[in-house]
Amino acid sequence: MKYSIIVPVFNRPNEVEELLESLTHQTIQNFEVIIVEDGSQIPCHDICNQYKTQLDIHYFMKENSGPGQSRNFGAARAQGEYLLILDSDVVLPDNYLKSVDNELQREPADGFGGPDCAHPSFTDTQKAISYSMTSFFTTGGIRGGKKKLDKFYPRSFNMGIRKEVYQALGGFSKMRFGEDIDFSIRIYKAGYQCRLFPEAWVWHKRRTDFKKFWRQVFNSGIARINLYKKYPESLKLVHLLPAVFTTGMITLSLIAIIGLILLITTGNHNFLWVSTIPLIPIILYILLLFIDSTLQNKSIKIGMLSIISAYIQLGGYGCGFIQAWWQRCIKNKGEFSAYQKNFYK
Description:
By secondary structure, this protein is α/β, with parallel strands linked by helices. Helices cover 51% and strands 13% of the residues. The chain is built from 13 helices and 10 strands.
């Protein structure tokens, strides 16, 4: 067995069905599928049973412990030479495994991963969220794009690793959020190498609405500081940009508001400049996002939604980052996360 596909699941039976259906169309068949139900109240056991004649599928139910520990549970039962870690909200193109196989034959890799994009069937909101998470103008391309401000760290929505390396590192840590980056950092620190497989991409649904998306990116901002406390060298300039963006946007908005108040109360037209000049960089950035997303998605509506999504992505991450920096670096408190119990609600 060459590949073991490991998928932790929590209350997402419909998404699992879409993922399993996409696996039946793979052009390479030398793989098994391990579904680990992480204490779900809405299990996907019946759906997995429907695919037993089409896939080499193994279903396990366990108490809730988070995605990282569920992946470890699956890895301990895997037979493949390579472990492919996927999130339950991804769908694979027919040539996904073939692309992974081609890359490994061309050049071996200890750890690897691929990019993600939006499927045409996704909602406009999901496409806008996908844009904000993958665009160079929002994340610097650190999530698998070709234009990058940082080296490539595989993430758990589309991650592969040699089983012997996984076992040598002890798998994922007990971090509830940011555990995939923690794992990637440990891969590098142990002397192994990770590589981007640009053609091994997936369709990734991410969150289905902006409220859930805020919770996701807020937790990601907190996780970045938690990672910094474990690995100080892991914090790069690109990770500071959302916090700088958040404080900058708040500062510019406050200056504009104060200028407007002074203009109204004093009638001094000199304050007109104070109320308008700070808005120029905000407007220019909004236009940049709108034009770029509209062209990429060929939709004005998605372009407009991408503005909201980008500000949530940067602002939510920035707020989580700043809060965690204050709690952990200034007040010296322990590791924490937000929205843990209602993360998917």
